[in-house]
Amino acid sequence: MPDHQNPATRICPDCDGFASVAVTLGGRNRQGHLNTITAHCKRCQGTGTLPPLRTLLDAAATVVFAGGAQ
Ligand SMILES: [Zn+2]
């Protein structure tokens, strides 16, 4: 996980930035390595970050005020 993130970027609260893990399935392959699958965080889709809150607020405000006062 990089230390130099954009301060506006939010770390995913579901995985705390650790968005992908290797899960052992048991047993080993012919080379002697563990059989694993990679699982990604569902909320952040494996990125470890979420869009800045400002982006979400701007989008919500656009929806609310798009109908506007008429
Ligand atoms: Zn996540």
Number of helices: 1
Low-confidence stretches: none
- Helical fraction equals 10-25%
Give the H and E element order: EEEEH
Write the layout of secondary structure elements.
Blueprint: E1 10-11, E2 20-28, E3 34-40, E4 49-50, H1 53-66
Antiparallel strand pairs: 1-4, 2-3
Structural description of this entry:
By secondary structure, this protein is an alpha+beta fold. The protein has one domain. 20% of the residues lie in helices and 29% in strands. It is built from one helix and four strands, in the order E-E-E-E-H. A two-stranded antiparallel ribbon has the order 1-4. The longest helix is centred in the last third of the chain and has 14 residues. The N and C termini lie far apart (49 Å). The mean pLDDT is 86. The site of zinc ion has 8 residues, from loops.
Quickly list its features.
1 helix, binds zinc ion, two-stranded antiparallel ribbon, single chain, alpha+beta, two-stranded antiparallel sheet, 70 residues
Structure summarized in a few sentences:
With 70 residues, the protein is an alpha+beta fold. It is 20% helix and 29% strand. The longest helix has 14 residues, at 53-66.
